[in-house]
Design goal:
- The protein is of the alpha/beta class.
- The protein is built from 23 helices and 26 strands.
- The strands form seven sheets. Strands 11-16-15-14-12-13 form a six-stranded mixed sheet, sandwiched between helices.
- Helix 2 runs antiparallel to helix 13 (315-325) and helix 16 (370-383) crosses helix 22 (555-563).
Length: 744
């Protein structure tokens, strides 16, 4: 058997190597036929003029450019009719090099899944990979070859609008999710249900100063390597076909022109074989940065730094040929970029059949698959975080609601609208508002029986000061047994270019809740948002709070599933929730300092005089309808050498009344080192499902990788010393502790 397995492996490797070699030969043969202008054309990406659902009217100049081989890729082209039309133009070019079609398929195509930050709250890597796989299946069936996702930026500042697009604040969790998303989108590149992934934004975009979009980033090399780069390395390891560079500068050098991160790290140290695309217009923006004198210098800086494709600025198209003629840019540099792009077109099978992604039967089947909606509903439920469910006078939380509830008042500006449930970055399909989205009202209607009466009042708008709807809301609340209030931010208040200095609940929504409290009715608050919000009065005074984020096309059904206990919430926060904006940036894995805030005896300590240091809700936090006990923590050894491992085991028991899932989190603390280390760091987690009364023993492995960090010389190494080991339900809810030592 051993020899058979070895033979199979060698045969598979041989075929893969042969295919790779064959593509390399084809790329070289094609490259020799190309003029300089045709090569530069492959480096140029243009848009479909922002009319994805209207009639296809191709700009005459663009049509001429495609036929002349001056455009290598298009973005914002949507659907097989449009992609085929553009591809037919490319097939009229001299060398018939097919176009690549890219689109921002961020959290679903037709079937919309929770925004990525919400999915991260599920801590369910298989579910996250599955949602990306379905998105790829639907997008590829609609003629798309390439998605500009996943965003793998670590984000510690909820003022930054694009936190909705990533996995939150933690590097370990973000790294695992980056790998899962890339694998989900790509599968095996070249399969018809696969799209190229694009890891973005390279690099450190999430560290923008002040949480302000497009702003500068100023950080140490150690922080860059330890906090912000690992998810990108995971994307490379997962086989990401493309990278997108960031709008920001890093320590004074714009990422688009940053040779160190693109050539030295990405294409050098990490041996990345795909290609790098600029973000929209970012090459031309090198002039605005004050880094380049003009577009010509910008083109020089970007191409020499390793940016292979120019998205929409036409800077390469207008300047590269002259730079080559002046011998400022070598033809070898141009050829390297072109080969990287051509290779992906060959891997996608576009040279064999440029229309292979343009099949109406496949598109119709993919976009009407009921299984996709079922999975979206399941993942949406997994993404919901139960923040509070305080016991009532009856001794238990309001949730889950009983099917015997006679009258429910459903109040708030989020109850009946549909489009808002998609959140930001939803693909623009004509029918989407009326056909594909389950509103929160519809979800509740679908759930309750005929014996339950539903009452509705909007109450107020999301923004503004108008309280004229309060009385209607109070009237129906007084008629009900339970009040559900759905509030939050508008779907387009988070996302790109949606930074907010004030992340409190907007408008008079919290005033509405204050008035409803006076009715004395049991109240459940649903908070819809693309980021952590500040809602202190609600958090302190409302007994039951459910953070629903933006959950996608099955939002209404998923919320109803959780409210009535058909799904027991299991989400955990992937970002820390601050008490006030003045705490930001706030994250769990900070340093202790020489005068930590927890030292009650000292007057002079690292703390505010007008605000607690602790967050409102900590990283990793989330409740369930059941309870879990942690016990019997065991370490296989308490001293190890660098080439050894420790097996950690712990028993988790469901001690409550409902079947449920728990995310068991493992943290460590390096007690002393040549560089100070965070107070705790997530190093592993497992999500497990337990029946009532059931106990499971789960195991973790601590190895040298988990104990290593980037030292002063940027060497990734461990150091001998003592380590605390913590197992818990969140970063602030450590249930069991132990320690071990790393020795020579």
């Amino acid at each position: 058997m051993k020899f058979l397995l070895k033979a199979i492996f060698l045969l598979t490797f041989s075929i893969s190597f042969s295919q790779s070699k064959s593509i390399d030969v084809k790329v070289e043969q094609l490259l020799k036929k190309m003029t300089l202008e045709e090569k530069i054309g492959q480096l140029n990406q243009n848009t479909d003029d922002w009319n994805p659902t209207g009639p296809l009217i191709v700009n005459a100049n663009k049509e001429t450019d495609i036929i002349a081989g001056m455009i290598g890729s298009m973005l914002n082209v949507n659907g097989i009719v449009r992609t085929r039309k553009y591809q037919e133009l490319a097939m009229q070019s001299r060398l018939k090099i097919p176009l690549l079609f890219g689109l921002d398929v961020i959290h679903g195509y037709k079937t919309t899944f929770p925004i990525p930050l919400a999915e991260a709250a599920s801590w369910d890597l298989l579910a996250i990979e599955q949602s990306a796989r379905i998105a790829a299946t639907e997008a590829s069936a609609s003629g798309i070859h390439w998605t500009f996702a996943p965003m793998v930026d670590i984000a510690r500042d909820p003022r930054w609008g694009r936190v909705m697009e990533g996995a939150g604040e933690d590097t370990y969790l973000g790294t695992k999710i980056a790998f899962a998303r890339v694998k989900g989108f790509q599968g095996k590149l070249g399969d018809l249900n696969s799209v190229m992934a694009c890891a973005k934004h390279f690099a450190a975009y999430g560290a923008a100063v002040g949480g302000r979009e497009y702003n500068s980033v100023d950080l140490s090399d150690r922080t860059l390597w330890e906090v912000y780069l690992p998810p990108f390395k995971a994307a490379v390891d997962a086989g990401a076909a493309t990278f997108m560079n960031a709008f920001n500068d890093i320590n004074g050098i714009p990422a688009t022109a940053n040779k160190h991160i693109q050539r030295d790290i990405l294409k050098g140290k990490w041996n990345f074989k795909g290609f790098v695309i600029s973000d929209w217009g970012s090459i031309a923006e090198l002039v605005t940065h004050g880094y380049s004198k003009n577009d010509k210098e910008a083109a020089y800086s970007a191409i020499t730094a390793g940016s292979d494709m120019d998205m929409e600025s036409n800077t390469y198209r207008n300047n590269l040929a002259q730079l080559v003629k002046e011998k400022k840019v070598s033809i070898a540099t141009i050829d390297d970029a072109v080969k990287r792009i051509l290779r992906k077109k060959f891997e996608l099978g576009l040279f064999d059949d440029p229309y292979r992604y343009c099949n109406k039967d496949r598109q119709d089947a993919a976009l009407s698959n009921p299984e996709h909606s079922r999975v979206a509903r399941e993942i949406a439920a997994k993404s919901i975080v139960l923040l509070k469910n305080s016991p009532s006078t009856l001794g238990q939380g309001i949730l889950p609601l009983s099917n015997q509830t006679k009258t429910i008042a459903f109040i708030g500006p989020m109850v009946k609208p549909k489009r808002i449930n998609h959140g930001f970055w939803a693909v623009n399909l004509k029918e989407i508002d009326s056909t594909y989205i389950v509103s929160q009202w519809e979800g509740l209607e679908n759930k309750v029986g005929k014996s339950t009466k539903l009452l509705y009042a909007k109450g107020c708008d999301i923004e503004g000061t108008n309280k004229s709807g309060f009385q209607e809301a109070l009237d129906i609340a007084n008629q009900s047994d339970v009040v559900i209030v759905s509030i939050g931010e508008r779907f387009d208040m988070s996302g790109e270019s949606k930074s907010r200095s004030n992340i409190h609940l907007p408008g008079v929504q919290e005033d509405l809740i204050k008035e409803l409290q006076k009715t004395g009715k049991p109240i459940v608050v649903l908070i819809n948002a693309g980021r952590p919000l500040v809602f202190n009065w609600t958090a302190d005074n409302m007994p039951t709070i459910v953070y629903t984020w933006w959950l996608g096309s099955e939002a209404g059904n998923a919320i109803a599933d959780v409210l009535f206990g058909d799904y027991n919430p299991s989400g955990k926060l992937p970002m820390t929730f601050p008490r006030e904006e003045g705490q930001i940036p706030i994250y769990y894995n900070h340093f202790n300092t020489g005068r930590p805030s927890i030292n009650e005896e000292k007057l002079y300590k690292s703390s505010y005089i007008d605000l607690q240091n602790t967050p409102k809700f900590p990283f990793g936090y989330g409740l369930s309808y059941t309870t879990f006990n942690y016990s019997n923590l065991k370490l296989s050894k308490t001293k190890i050498k660098a080439d050894e491992t420790i097996e950690v085991s712990v028993d988790i028991s469901n001690s409550g009344k409902y079947e449920g899932e728990e995310v068991v989190q493992l943290y460590i603390h390096d007690k002393y080192a040549t560089l100070i280390r965070p107070i705790l760091e997530l190093k592993d987690f497992q999500k497990i499902k337990l029946g009532v009364g059931e106990t499971k023993t789960i195991k973790f492995v601590i190895d040298n990788q988990k104990l290593s960090f980037y030292n002063e010389k940027l060497q990734f190494k461990s150091e001998e010393g003592e380590f605390d080991l913590m197992i818990g339900a969140s970063s602030a809810d450590i249930r069991l502790n132990s320690s071990f030592e790393l020795v020579k």
